[in-house]
Amino acid sequence: YASDCLTIFHKGKDKCTDDFIRTPGLWLSKKKLHARFTGNWDNDAGIMGVGDELSLQKWYHITYTLSDPEKRLDIYVDGEWVGYYSIQDVKKQNVIFNDGPLYIGQAFSCDGFDGEISNVHYFNWRLTPEEVKKDLLRGLRKNEEDTFYYISFDDKSFDDNSISILKLRPFKNNTNAQWKVLRIDNYYGYPSLTDNSPIKDVVLINKGTGKAMKYRNKETGTEITQVDLAEADNNCILWSIGSKQNDGTRAMHLNNNESMSLDGWTGNLVDGCEARLFPTHNGSNQLWTFEQVLCD
């Protein structure tokens, strides 16, 4: 992060003009969010340095709400209300909205946000706290019937012919109860990462209980595993446990350098979310990308 304000988004006209407007606007400076807007008394009103410092290499769900009738701006991080700005002179002071362009990641000559933005939802009404949480839990896209998710490696240490795919498909058309897990090795004989085999074992874990479901592991070929989930599918987290052998009935204890999460803020299997996997074999970190595709 730089000390100067970096643009996350900015809606309004060029700052070089006399009527510079920033409604709404969100910036990042010294690891903190700066939520601003333009009013008829100040073209740069709002919050400076709201909430805790943001961490690097971590996804956040950030919600900015602004209302002239309510005379306030609110900021939420991962569904939690972290700060607000309230207009004091409610009869004379008003928010100035605009029909200017919406800039995402960079605006005008200002430095842009040096990071990744997964998606942006722009609503034409002020979200309530309940709607903020609903948007958070929904993720990027609701899991729809007759769809499944697949995971593919996106790592330079793997060539195009060595991609391994893991498919998660609703079992018996009941997405809230059961899943089938298919492990597909595209061809026999993986290239190695630092002279070690890539991670092969996969297990489903119930997010609510933390207990592992039963699974099977094979060195090559297609693997089909049926698991019963006590809760809805968004309470299930997919983990890889390195080269350890396990029948799926014992508790799983991760090493310090081994972790995996799905959606950075919900843990859901959702379209487009990414997870970073830190393998135990000291190979380079692998980036997994989730996508939603139609069933065969």
Automatic annotation (TrEMBL):
Signal sequence range: none
UniProt cross-references to Pfam families, sorted A to Z: Laminin_G_3 (PF13385)
Domain of life: Eukaryota
Name of the featured protein: 17512_t:CDS:1
